UniProtKB/TrEMBL annotation:
Ranges for domain GGDEF: 378-498
InterPro entries: Diguanylate_Cyclase, GGDEF_dom, Nucleotide_cyclase, Rev_trsase/Diguanyl_cyclase, TPR-like_helical_dom_sf
Name of the protein described by the UniProt record: GGDEF domain-containing protein
SUPFAM superfamilies according to UniProt: Nucleotide cyclase (SSF55073)
Signal sequence, start to end: none
Highest taxon above the source species: Bacteria
């Protein structure tokens, strides 16, 4: 029995919407899901519809609507203690974070999705598709090895539910792996993977097991081989037609046409096509258009321009690797902090010391931390930081979006602080920063980094039409006998936009 069969309402409507999404027809699935939400009263049915609606908006690239849709899905799932729904929601949330260029948040959702899906006892088709969507999220965020493991799990669970392994071929995972190899200079490795995708296409065509949503992926793999000078027996242009209404399909069609134009000996035309139509950096990675420009220039005989474009593509690929490395370091730091908490429960173990929304220390833990500093005779810079525009967020977008803004700000502050610094949520939209041993110059530098990081966030996608900023002020503790209360008052009085 499918997971859907357990629902109290609209089972066939939801099954039909799911099939449409699996075949790349999210625009047709969306009104079905909206109709279910307009009439359903069962909490589990509504939660499932909310999660699937969130996924449909991701497929359609409607980034401005993702924050509200995710908040609604998360709230609905919280009311239904079901591990499949939780896992599916976090898999979609990871993809949403990727579209919003928030790698840190995306990685967090990946971990949560994997843990939730691993806790699902049933081996049914819905759970198999949950693993499939998690594999897609891993792949888009650059974790190609984990994506292959997750898609294998999808095949295993799907087989137990009677689904053919071809259903979870997921050529997009290997395509993104192939172009990532090329971006890093391993063109031979890229071609090997592209040949494997071509061979797989031949098998699926022979057995009539090809999913419509995979057409553009196979077409692009063929076209990319041709652009690299390796002709194929299949007709790439044929496979680049159809395949659904997703942003991924649209961009693959365009870039595939560019590749075929290169292969046809018209590199100047291919360059103009690249410049005329922008494509999403999330589909095949930001380096892909630059790498195609390099191939165009090389085909035209302009090797200096080809080298410059290749260098740019490589820099973009290296930047992504640096982001992943920074996330790894932050993860190790968080694990060490957790170990320290476990070793010293008398100091940190009280759950009332943590703010439940952001996971940061709260006012009580801040006071204990500062008391410890002062008892050792140490000095520190103390900053008060609050959110400019927060009242407008709550009024225009609601409390859930306000919570998401606070969580995002907490992540920004945690990311830019120095090792050993202390960040707490003090009250409302107010955060307190403690920099042990720091003076005015260090505080000014941290304030600058906070402002730059906050400005770089995509607030338009989270709370459209509502500008978000930060204001901060600084003081000191331990100087002239000043305690925490006096330092906070002085810092608050000196606040200005960062």
């Amino acid at each position: 029995m499918s997971w859907l069969d357990q629902l109290a309402e609209h089972v066939e409507d939801l099954r039909r919407a799911g099939h449409l999404q699996q075949n790349g027809q999210s625009a047709q699935a969306l009104p079905i899901l909206d109709a279910v939400l307009a009439s359903a009263s069962d909490p589990t049915t509504r939660a499932y519809a909310r999660v699937q609606r969130f996924g449909a908006l991701i497929n359609l690239g409607r980034v401005a609507e993702l924050a509200v849709a995710m908040a609604a899905a998360a709230e609905a799932v919280r009311e239904v203690p079901d591990p499949y729904l939780r896992g599916q929601m976090h898999a979609f949330a990871a993809l949403g974070a990727h579209l919003q260029s928030n790698l840190d948040r995306g990685v967090t959702h990946l971990v949560q999705a994997s843990r939730a899906l691993a806790a699902v006892p049933e081996r049914d088709s819905e759970t198999a598709w949950g693993w499939h969507d998690l594999a897609m999220a891993y792949s888009y965020l650059g974790f190609h090895g984990q994506a292959l493991i997750a898609i294998e799990q999808a095949r295993e669970v799907g087989a137990a539910a009677g689904l053919a392994s071809e259903v979870f071929a997921a050529p997009g995972i290997r395509l993104r792996n192939a172009v990532a190899l090329d971006h890093q200079g391993d063109t031979d490795g890229c071609l090997r993977v592209l040949r494997d995708i071509d061979a797989e296409l031949s098998r699926y065509v022979a057995t009539d097991q090809l999913r419509p949503g995979s057409r553009a992926v196979y077409g692009y793999a063929l076209a990319r081989r041709a652009a690299l000078g390796e002709p194929t027996g299949a007709d790439a242009a044929r496979w680049l037609t159809g395949g659904g209404d997703s942003v991924r399909t649209r961009d693959l069609r365009h870039l595939g046409a560019v590749c075929l134009t290169i292969a046809g000996g018209r590199p100047e035309r291919a360059l103009s096509m690249l410049q005329a139509v922008p494509v999403s950096a999330e589909v095949l990675g930001a380096p892909e258009p630059a790498r195609l420009r390099s191939i165009c220039h090389a085909s035209a005989g302009d090797h200096a321009a080809a080298h410059a474009a290749d260098r740019y593509a490589f820099r973009l690929a290296a930047l992504r690797i640096d982001q992943l490395r920074d996330g790894y370091l932050d993860g190790v730091a968080a694990r060490l902090d957790a170990q320290e908490t476990h070793r010293d429960p008398g100091r940190y173990g009280d759950e009332t010391l943590t703010d439940p929304l952001t996971g940061l220390p709260n006012r009580r833990q801040l006071e204990r931390y500062v008391d410890t500093l002062l008892s050792r005779g140490e000095r520190a810079a103390v900053g008060v930081c609050d959110v400019v525009g927060f009242t407008s967020v709550n009024m225009r977008h609601g409390r859930h979006c306000g919570d998401l803004v606070l969580q995002r700000i907490a992540g920004v502050l945690h990311r830019v602080m120095r090792r050993g610094d202390f960040v707490a949520r003090f009250a409302g939209d107010e955060f307190v920063l403690v920099l042990p041993g720091a003076g005015p110059h260090q505080a000014a530098e941290v304030s600058r980094r906070i402002g730059a990081a906050a400005t770089a966030e995509n607030w338009q996608a989270l709370v459209p039409g509502t500008p978000i900023g930060l204001a901060s002020g600084w003081s000191e503790i331990g100087a002239h006998g000043r305690g925490l209360s006096a330092a906070l008052a002085a810092a608050a009085a000196s606040r200005k936009p960062t």
